[in-house]
TrEMBL record:
Pfam families: Glyoxalase (PF00903)
CDD domains xref list: VOC_BsCatE_like_C
Lineage start: Bacteria, Bacillati, Bacillota, Bacilli, Bacillales
Protein name: Glyoxalase
Residues covered by the VOC domain: 10-126, 169-283
Species: Lederbergia galactosidilytica
SUPFAM superfamilies: Glyoxalase/Bleomycin resistance protein/Dihydroxybiphenyl dioxygenase
Amino acid sequence: MSFHRKPKTFVGHVNIKVENLERSLQYYQEIIGFTILERTSSTAKLTTDGKTSILSLEQPENVIPKQGRTTGLYHFALLLPEKRDLANNVVHFIENGIRFGSSDHLVSEALYLHDPDGNEIEIYIDRDPSEWQWDREEVAMTVDPLNFERLLKNVVTEKTWKGLPAATLMGHIHLHVSELRETEEFYVNGLGFDVVNRYGGQALFLSTGKYHHHIGVNTWNGVGAPKPSENSVGMESFTLILPSEEAVKETINNLHKIGVSVKEEDGRLLTYDPSGNRIELTV
């Protein structure tokens, strides 16, 4: 599948804020299965292949706990390459006494859990796109119980859990936003995504190249929800990978057309959605 490579636009990296970096590093290595690519006293870049970071952690100065009923991260989602990887994660979590939720979304099968700071993580496997059901431009998704009996038939019993496979990707991100009308304009007319599912009047799912979603947005924390404090646990930013420098220029121009600014900070090209979620644009 090629939903996370050129010429698609997709989420390549997420940067989250935590209260205690050492505690989080232990969790993300021993429970989730990352390894450390780079680290400082207050930051760490995590990897699955030893070359590319798809998740970073940072401990802000004067950090405060995660604030409820605000905009920001709902969850980030790690896409595994094989169904057996998801099955082995189930066994790993059970063996380590980790509480987790689960769901069958028709397009995917997913596990959900929270890190020590309450940041939500989805770990999932896609069904073959030939099984996805499309009604014109909208893909069918639901929240059904996961069939564990069927899934666990894929457990590889002769191998112990060895962490996240090297081919693990940042599959998508799901955000709390304060409203949907301007949010849709931003992601569609500004960033070039297509709406592929409308969940009532409370959520939108967006993608490029007919993926089931690279980005989800919802108002489940309330219409008009405020931004969290800058030093609050949660999301610092996420990175959109665009296919070319020309695509970056075109995106910047489209954002300017709808009145959204793009600025460079410390070598990063940044913009903000209408709810204040920070997005880095790169190739």
